[in-house]
Input
Amino acid sequence: MLGLAHATLCLAGGPLTISESGTLKYCAIDLSRDRIRAFYTDEDGRRFGSIEGLTQWLSRSGERIVCATNGGIFGPDRKPLGWLIVDGVELQPLNVRTDQPGNFFLQPNGALSVSGAAARIDTTDALAGARPSDVTGIDIALQSGPILVLNGVINPIFDKGSVSRYTRNAVCLRDARTVLFAYSPEPLSLYAFAKALQDVGCQSALYLDGHLSQLYPDRSALAPAQREPLSVILAVTTKDPHGN
Output
């Protein structure tokens, strides 16, 4: 594995860095200091569509993005395929189907949820069996799939010899307060991607997407010709000292 390289981005209660390790680029978010937000639509119900579009919208209120990534798999209508909570409001229910094609439905799939300064990744089965109807206290939740790493163990369905390789991104937890937005600019199999995440200390990791993978502010991760609009965007923001 290569050594770590760090580049300071900006302040959000303290320095936040983008790091490189082997094939990965990632930003590590400390929830005791920074807040992860999920962005889906603006006040008029229009989807942001891209990290650039979200950047422009935030600038109107004097904010800027510190770190951001595309937030999971969506359908042809650009609606998320699964559970979505934004600012404490449930916008999409938990999707418990397992009989559909695509990465989202590879088992186990699951969801990231953040409540205050604590994050967790749970399997859909666990959520379906225990999730309360009252989602009070959950700030954001995002369902995707498959789970890449769970409690330190790589998903056993992955084939070490798979030749299906794509650029990929994920959200992962080193612990309940340390969240990584991670991106591999080098095409990897799901197993190799999960192993790379495990190698940087991820105890649990949730796959977000493949060819649409983006990580801001790493410019190499922002395709000059985005293939299609994004749906949900996960981001850490801060007040722009030069803004409103």
Notes: The first strand starts at residue 5 and ends at 11.
